[in-house]
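Onboarding guide, step 5: your first structure request.
Type a short instruction followed by the sequence, for example:

Predict the 3D structure of this protein.
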Amino acid sequence: MSSDLSVAQVLANLEKQLAFHRQQEAHHAEREVFHREQRVVHASEVENVSKHYEAFKATAEGAAKIAARTATAPPKPEAPTPPVRVEPKRPHILVARLVAELPAGETLTASKVAAEVHRRYRSELKKPISSPTASTCLRRQAAYGSVRLVKKGTAHIQAVYTKV
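The system replies with structure tokens like these:
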């Protein structure tokens, strides 16, 4: 030990050490209170979580037993049925069907019939029927007696028919 220190220096040194250790004691006392409070909080959380854990575990085990007991093989997938292919109908059949469905007394022109056949029976046609084709079908319907000619047509004016 060095004896070159004066009494004043020794006292100052001891005071510094004393202050440091008091500060550390106070700090650790605060930490002790903080840690004690945190310990209480975490202890209550451990109790709460463990209670829910045990309840969930018991339920999950019971559900797993039930699921294992009633497990069956999944049903075999059914073979997909091929789409029903609609055979395209000839235009005169569709015009006759349309005329049969319309109320008596309704007036018909070739363009109206062509549009209505296309609207109602689109899936049964390969392509939309034209007004000249519908006109021919109506003319034949008139010859068979299911429609009657009301007004004769010309090259630029459509003939008008009505259902009998």
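Each response can be followed by summary notes, for example: The first helix runs from residue 7 to 69.
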